[in-house]
Amino acid sequence: MAANSTPRANPPDLPFLDDAVGAASDAQLAFGFDLRDRAVQLARRDGANVVLRKHVQSAIGDLTSARRFRITSPIGSLGGILLGGGISGLVSAFATNTPPTWSTVVITAVLLVIGAVGVTASLIFTFMER
């Protein structure tokens, strides 16, 4: 085995039917094209003239975790915005001399709770991927 080659997995215990082999081949081909495109995109982002191994590895990570990340990233972003709005309301309530109204307290508490849950859920799902 060459120094840079990866070991091959053991063959499957069950045989593949012809249509299953075709579907697997199509999926491999599609993944290969997606991998190539993403690796080129990452290389261009780095300003490189060639695609390096790190670009391919990053592209593999992007493509294999992309489905869950597409869900958790907006949840975390929205949670961060709501958490920031809640913290802003909390700071303004303490910074002013007038007592806050009940609606301000409720809105601030709801923003803090929903924002904290969103950020926490996003972090948990992100670390579960790794």
What does this structure look like?
The protein has three helices and no strands. 11% of the residues are buried. With 130 residues, the protein is mainly α. The chain has one domain. Helix content is 77%, strand content 0%. It is elongated and about 75 Å long.
Annotation keywords:
3 helices, mainly alpha, elongated, 130 residues, 77% helix
Q: Stretches where pLDDT falls below 50 for ≥5 residues?
A: none
Mean pLDDT: 84
Query: How many domain units?
Result: 1
Distance between the termini: 29 Å
The biggest beta sheet is recorded as: none
Number of helices: 3
Helix fraction by DSSP (H/I, runs of at least 4): over 70%
Strand content: under 5%
Pattern of helices and strands: HHH
Which word captures the global form?
elongated
Please outline what is shown here.
The protein is mainly α and 130 residues long.
What's the SSE blueprint?
Layout: H1 18-46, H2 53-95, H3 102-129
Helix pairs in contact: 1-2, 2-3
